[in-house]
Structures are given as C-alpha cells and as structure tokens.
Amino acid sequence: MKFADMPYSRPDFEAQYARMKDLLKQMEEAQSQEAFIDALLTLDRESGSLQTQATLAHIRYTINTQDPFYSAENDVMDENLPRFQEIPAEVARITLASPYQEAVSQRYGAHMLEKMEVAMKAFSPEIVEDLVEESKLNSEYQKLIASAQIEFEGETRNLSGLLPFMQSTDRDMRQSAFSAHWGWMARHSEALDSIFDKLVRVRHGIGKKLGYDSFIPVAYARMGRTDWNMEDARAYRKQIVESVVPLTQKLYRQQAQRIGIPEMKAYDLPLEYLSGNPLPQGEEPYLVDRAREMYKALSPETDEFFSVMTGQGLMDLTTKPGKAAGGYMTFIPDYKVPFIFSNFNGTSGDVDVLTHEAGHAFQGYLQRDVFPSMLKDYTMEVAEIHSMSMEFFAHPWMEGFFGPDTEKYYHSHVADGLKFLPYGASVDAFQEWVYLNPEATPKERNLKYREIEKVYLPHLDYSGFPYLEGGARWQKQLHIYGLPFYYLDYTLSQVCAYQYFIWNQKDPKAAWQSYLTACRRAGRVPFTALLKECGLNNPFVPGTIAQITPRLEAYMEGLDQSKIH
C-alpha cells in the first residue's frame, strides 16, 4: 500500500488501554508457558496497531504542521500516549517476576530480559501526568521552530531554507543569511528558554519521583543503555578532547587558508571551499534516480529495499513552508515499512539524507518481520551505526550525485564527521551539567554552554552576534529539547562508521557482510557485544579514537588536492 493510501483513524484509547490491561492480567495469571507467551505476543500486536496510527499522525503532522486536522491529532496523541508507557513497564515487571522468565530468555535471548530491567527504571504510574506535560512541551518547541517565516532574498523561508545562503561564496551573503537565521532564534530566545525551563523542571521531578537524585539515570534508562554509564561517557569525551580536537583545529586552519580568511568568523564556517561547497547535481527527482541506481548496484538487499521506498511513496524529502525541521526515519508496524522525512534544500545534506536516513530505513526493512517487536528494540548508538556507515558504503557512487564536486564531497564528508565529534560531545557535556544543576537560570545555562564550547570548539568566533556569544547556540539543537542524552550516540556511531570506512577500502565484501550483521543483530545483544560480533573496536576503550584519526587524516591528504579548493 502506498503511504498516501494508508488510512488513519484515531485510536479508541480507552478500549485499547483496557485490552492491553486485560492482556497484562492474562500474562500474570497464565497457567502455562504457552499461555504466557501467547498473551505477550498478542499484546505486542496491540502495541503495533496503536503505534501505526500514532506514527501516521506524526508523519503527516510533521509534513505540514499547519494542517489543522493532523495538528489536532498530534495534540491528542501528546495527551493520550504517555499513559501507554505503563504497558512495557508492566510487561517487564510481570515477565521478570514470572515462573516463565527462563522460557522467555531461552526463546528470545537474555538481552530481552536485560532490556526489560532497564525499562522498569524509567517508568512509574505516578509520572504519567509529567510525561504528558513533557510531550506537550516537546511539541511546543517543534511548532515554534517550524513556525519560522523569514523574509530573505525576496521569498519567505524557514530556517532550513536559509542554509544554502549561509554556504554562499559571497561573504556578505553568508553574514546576512547567518544574521537572519540566528536573529530569528534570538528574537524567540525567551520563549525557547521558557519551554526548556519547564522541561528541566518536569524531568528533574520525574527523576525524583522514580527515586533518583537527578533525571540522568532516567535518561540513560530511556535510552535503553545496559552496558555503559555516565563515567564511560566522561572518559569517552576525554578521548575526543585529546585525539579529535587538535585535528579539527588543524582542519579549520586549512579551511581558513582555502577560503582566504585567516580569522574566520562563525558565519564563515559553513563555506568550506572558495569554489563553493560540493553541491548535488540536481533536485529531488534527479537525486532519487541516482540513489535508485546506487542501491541497485550496492547489493540485492538494498535494491529490493529502495524499490519499496520509491514504489510505495515512503519518502517526503524537500523543504516547504510549515514543514517541521530536521530529518528522521520511522517505521510503520502494521505495514512493515519504513518512512523517510527530510528537508532537501539544495545542499550536500540532501545526498546525506539519501544515505543516512536510508541507512536507518534499510535496517528497519531488514528487520521488518522480526517478532515480537521488543526483540528488535535497540539503543541509539546501535541505530546510528546503520545510518552513518551507509553514508560511507555509498562513497563509490558519489560521482553520480556530485559530478565535478565529488572529490570535494569526499573531503568534506570525512572532515565534517570529525568536526561533528567535538560538537556532539559538547552537547552531551552540557546536558549532563544541566540535569545535575536543575535550578540553574537561563543565563547560567548559557554561560556554561559557552564555557563548554571553548573546550570542544575553541575556534568559534561569534563577534557581532551577542545571542551566540552569550552561549545560546544550543537552543537550535532539537535533541536537547526532545531527545535528551541522545546526541553522544551519534558520535559513538561515527567512530564505528569510520571503522567501516577504513575497512571497506581494504576489503569491501567483508566490511559489507559485517554491516549486514550489525543491521540484522541489532536488538539481540547490547552495543558493546554487537561491536565484538561485527569485528569493530569499542569506542569506550582508551586509544580507539587515536588509532582512527591518523588514517582519516592520511585519506584526506591523499585526495586530489587540485580539486579541493
């Protein structure tokens, strides 16, 4: 079925909740292993049905946040879905206390029980109202960002629509677009602070109600982390400061030489090359055609997958007024298909969507028949391996997307990933401080973020932009509002993706088979165990990053420098 034809019907929340509670009771009172597992599986199907309708509403709302019907439905979901978080927590409680616990472990693996133990740490019925408020605040942030209507160069544009101008070779244009972009953010800073104040307050309250000193243990439990903790995160961030920051500062100095601006300001940074950043050779139809060719050549699995994505209209790619910011992949359980959402704007990021989000979607497609769904619940640092690694497996086909800019794209792609690592770590360090200091004022938070920026991103010069100099750049990062503590996962996955990049240059067949293992085994074992199965080095182990960076630097230096200017 095409996405446009998938029917949406608001769930009967009361009836569905009652059915789920009845199935929980059946699990609790089961007199046999078969009866217990049958109730568990039926409950999983019920959850999938509810999730299907919630996902359809979410996709259609984010495609057009100004659509009155789906905007209202999104509000209804925000109001009603949080109480359903009780269901998996109750499944976990009942299973872990059940005489059939061992039968579940033997059938589905010990890690499924580990995930249940973590799920119990993040929920209690007494926090349902807090979850409702948190969900509404997340939507409020998303609506505010999506509401941006900025008059620029004769057209009304949203924030994503300004990005191509921020990469202009004309410095005045860059500065003007940068000012328009961050000027809009600055004008809404008080509203953004207000939303975040409330989020911190409600999340800290959730942590206290669940018996913790702060929200951080709840955040880690929500992320499903079973094999690493805050101390591991701190040690890992230290590796980034020691092994990545010096290299990225060298890359920024090289960029300054290339574009002829010795002391780059923040608005100069988006322009990586004086001849212009690598640009895709066409718009959405052209790029999708190139992607179709690429996935056909890459493997039989990717060919089948992308044929489904295009044939069933499972992508909404180009930016437009009213569309929510960012990009994502989600899965529609009842139809067993993924969906890709993005904001194409004429930059190289358009191609990254067709590799990054398609990496997520490909993995979802490979596991479409895995049942019960909780078996394939995996953590985000695992999820982002699928997406970020696909970006690098796609390298051999980039000439079809970038033509004469291909060499620049190769350089930019590797360099940008390195530059991202300190930023991602800075976001994590900031969030850790925020939730350890929940009483901090907006000004104190901003000052702390600026202090952290100077450790991880010391090159940033915000002269002339008091909003940014004051430390408010973090307000643009959706994950800080809606997905707390997610961001470090991107960096962990980037380190793994770089390993696949290096491996693929030596032995493409072995690297691809390992990647398929990473996709198919996701959720069966925790992050560090999956890395071991796939033959990847653990980013938490000191020295892992230091082994990778010299090879990446050598790769960039080995490119045709005459085409990188």
Description:
By secondary structure, the protein is mainly α. Helix content is 64%, strand content 4%. It is built from 26 helices and five strands. The protein has helices at residues 13-29, 33-63, 68-80, 86-96, 101-108, 110-121, 128-146, 163-166, 171-187, 189-209, 216-222, 230-243, 245-259, 284-298, 300-311, 349-366, 380-393, 398-402, 406-436, 442-456, 466-469, 478-482, 487-506, 508-520, 527-534, 544-558; strands at 150-152, 155-157, 315-318, 328-332, 337-344. A three-stranded mixed beta sheet has the order 3-5-4, sandwiched between helices. Helix 6 (110-121) runs antiparallel to helix 11 (216-222) and helix 12 crosses helix 19 (406-436). The longest helix has 31 residues, at 33-63. It is globular and about 75 Å long.
List keywords for this structure.
565 residues, 26 helices, mainly alpha, 5 strands, 4% strand
